[in-house]
Amino acid sequence: MSFIEAENIWKSYGKGEAKTVVLKGINLKIEEGEFVAIIGPSGCGKSTLLNILGLLDTPDKGNLYINNKKTTRMSENERARFRRKISGFIFQQFYLINSLTALENVELPMMLEGYSKNYRKRRAKQLLESVDLGDRLYYYPYQLSGGQQQRVAIARALANNPKIIFADEPTGNLDSKRSQQIMDILKNLHDEGITIVMVTHELEYTKYATKIVKMKDGMIVDILG
Ligand SMILES: Nc1ncnc2c1ncn2[C@@H]1O[C@H](COP(=O)(O)OP(=O)(O)OP(=O)(O)O)[C@@H](O)[C@H]1O
């Protein structure tokens, strides 16, 4: 079985007249070590699919297997635990906690896993150094540029040694120089063996992908690679 298998995934929002069917029978397999780019027009369901693959949202119908485990019958608690153990998330809006320093933001996921203060600090520092932020450990998010904030978010996503990183338009709020830095980091993580699933509308960045999934109107219309 593949690392991730989505079988006939359906998802809609709203009810009655206002109902929108956002995903219409998605089938997708992702192997360990792949770099998958999901592309398609605005509103075609890319983020919805990413959220379902990352267990942040549940499908109305269909099955999702991750690491040979059927996730679609799990309780919210089990899903949260599973999520924390194997995945890291990066979003266009960064979602850092403004009242915490860069170091504390990166420590947070390790705190939830019960690691000691010493270990957390040491690892958070290493991770921030690895994204070239060793001189910004005690800065708050509002004192950092967008590119720096996204690098803190990447360090945070790596805190618990994820097998897979889900990235939703990670360069969406950044200029091209900052975007390139983020893509270089994602490429290095992929080279180190981490599976990456990224939603993007920057076609240029699909060059890093080993598989390109093209969506349209809630369906996968093509898979390249
Ligand atoms: N929580 C929600 N409630 C109602 N409708 C939603 C919700 N989330 C998404 N939608 C709708 O589902 C559709 C798909 O949204 P989604 O964010 O998955 O698209 P996308 O392909 O990622 O778009 P974009 O490229 O613009 O970010 C859109 O029409 C959106 O309005």
From TrEMBL:
<dbReference type="InterPro" id="IPR003593">
    <property type="entry name" value="AAA+_ATPase"/>
</dbReference>
<dbReference type="GO" id="GO:0016887">
    <property type="term" value="F:ATP hydrolysis activity"/>
</dbReference>
<comment type="similarity">
    <text>Belongs to the ABC transporter superfamily.</text>
</comment>
<keyword id="KW-0813">Transport</keyword>
<dbReference type="GO" id="GO:0022857">
    <property type="term" value="F:transmembrane transporter activity"/>
</dbReference>
<dbReference type="GO" id="GO:0098796">
    <property type="term" value="C:membrane protein complex"/>
</dbReference>
<dbReference type="InterPro" id="IPR003439">
    <property type="entry name" value="ABC_transporter-like_ATP-bd"/>
</dbReference>
<feature type="domain" description="ABC transporter">
    <location>
        <begin position="4"/>
        <end position="223"/>
    </location>
</feature>
<dbReference type="InterPro" id="IPR017911">
    <property type="entry name" value="MacB-like_ATP-bd"/>
</dbReference>
<dbReference type="InterPro" id="IPR027417">
    <property type="entry name" value="P-loop_NTPase"/>
</dbReference>
<keyword id="KW-0378">Hydrolase</keyword>
<dbReference type="GO" id="GO:0005524">
    <property type="term" value="F:ATP binding"/>
</dbReference>
<protein>
    <submittedName>
        <fullName>Phosphonate-transporting ATPase</fullName>
        <ecNumber>3.6.3.28</ecNumber>
    </submittedName>
</protein>
<dbReference type="Pfam" id="PF00005">
    <property type="entry name" value="ABC_tran"/>
</dbReference>
<keyword id="KW-0547">Nucleotide-binding</keyword>
<dbReference type="InterPro" id="IPR017871">
    <property type="entry name" value="ABC_transporter-like_CS"/>
</dbReference>
<keyword id="KW-0067">ATP-binding</keyword>
